Amino acid sequence: MRASTSNEDMFFVEARELFEEIVDWLGSDSVFGLEHGELESKLLENGYELLRRLLQGYFDRRSDDEIEGECSGSDEAKRTHKKRFRRKLTTIFGTVIASRIGYGGRKISSLNPLDAELNLPVEQYSHGVRQRVAQEVARSGFGETVEIISKTTAAKVGKRQVEELAHKSACDFEEFYRQRETQPQTQDRGEIVVISVDGKGVIMRTEDLRIQTKKRALTSSKKLNKRITKGEKRNSKRMATVACVYTINPFVRTPEQIVNTEESEQKIKRPKPIGKRVWASLVQQPQQVISEAFDEALQRDPNQQKHFCALVDGNKTQLSLLKKFARKHNLKLTIVLDIIHVIEYLWKAAFVFHEDTSKEAEDWVSKRLLLILEGKSSLVAAGMRRSATKLKFNPLRRKPVDTCARYLLNNAPYLKYDRYLKAGLPIATGIIEGACRHLIKDRMDITGARWSLKGAEAVLRLRSLYISGDWYEYWRFHLKQEHKRNHLVLYKDGIPLMKRLIQAHCSISSPPPLPIPI
Q: In whole angstroms, how far apart are CA 425 and each of 192, 244, 291, 344, 441?
């Protein structure tokens, strides 16, 4: 170990001592009998402490180098009283103490310029801890996150604090995407811009249900105490609106290739979605989410030179809102009804005429699906009704047939699959269905879980960022926003004391700020 030759080394004496102890321990005879797992565990434990001491030494050094001067706040009040304050900061390496000069005065709030220089958070937990919590919350439950943080870091965070930190970490979600709308797109995009929207229920605490659902939940009576009987509804779900926007290249097919899927999959390579973004909200109304979906879609092609397509499942509210925003943006939008939903209706109708395990039912569906893909949905609807009438089925038995026919006729404007296939448009909502499952069901539908609105919305936002591939870009933006709202807005011209002194004298050099954890 080199000898200390400068005053700066004094701040890292404890770290150097521990490092030498670790090296000596590894070179001692007592280590020879240990397995590598025991070595890993011991090194990890001491490694966190070594890093904590290094960080503490850095904070002590910054505190010792802190230059006194006049501190001007955004309120223009003079802060003439100076006092050194100490605060705890819980980091992923353990707890450190930050000592810095506070500038205050009578009946005015104090300012700590070094906090601004280091972008320290207002609460006790560092941004490194907050990032780790946010990452784990997006994947695991709050209780599991507490355990994971305890096992993989030197920090201890309670369950309530985990939920609060997740909420704070997600607070810049909307602003992040708003500012991205003003940035030019440099990534290559597909020729078709696709918008898709769906809904998915999340089991909520009673106080966080929407008004009508809450009323039903409070007034409903259960037949049994320990389970829901047939015909009873939970009245405990709040619907999240799920949106997905992506671009894709055309995929031209024939109706025969759709029906004979095994042959087509072997011969044709399907294009993949490009720049997919998925998100969901329990707080916002469907109108707000769909409005954001149009903004996101237009960001991909502001001049509207691509083909815009919306995939739907027949929900009337969604259809109405899609048409409304298409008119608002003067956008030529092709609305496509999900072919999978159509097939489900066909199968239910087929079981009216054939046994549910028979080959005849499968052939019946395939024949009519081919006609629908050829743009003849009205003909299919009329034909199945006519067949049910000829066979003299009673109203109850023929109900699935009438339901299927009515579905086809009511949605006829969105069943022009012959045109869609020639244009290479997608005709199935697999992307948004997958988003509902991966974004909501896999995380939110945990057995026994009842979500608060605040916690559920935070998790949905964080999970959306991960699935859309925007997490790291978002976190950098979030740290900049934290710096602005927690520190820069408090100072005159948005410049803390240290930076003001550097600008004034130019001869003063200070250590670089801590890097942003990635």
A: 7, 16, 22, 21, 28
